[in-house]
Amino acid sequence: ILDEVERRRGVSAALVYPFMRSLMESPFPAPGKIIKVKTFLPGAGNEVIELRRPNDSRLEHVDFDSLFRCLSVRQVLRVFASLLLERRVIFVADKLR
């Protein structure tokens, strides 16, 4: 999905929003299943992009309540951004909850 967003942003930032809108309106697929997103890209015309959800569901049933009790929304977003930027993230705490 991020590769497709970057491809559109390279052509025009205005193309990202319609793609994200059509993606948000698509049903969330089960693990291993495919969704098809209809989209338009200048030069390529109308396209149907197939996106497959990975079979790896290790985090599907993880309870993130303790994370959100310990960190603010701003801190969670900062951690997530750091992970996306492939930075090292180390959690330090006095005790585990």
From TrEMBL:
InterPro entries hit by this protein: cDENN_dom, DENN_C, DENN_domain_containing_2, Tripartite_DENN
Keywords in alphabetical order: Guanine-nucleotide releasing factor
Chain ranges of the UDENN domain: 1-97
Endpoints of the signal sequence: none
Record flagged with keyword Electron transport: no
Record PANTHER family: DENN DOMAIN-CONTAINING PROTEIN 2, DENN DOMAIN-CONTAINING PROTEIN 2B
Name of this chain's protein: DENN domain-containing protein 2B
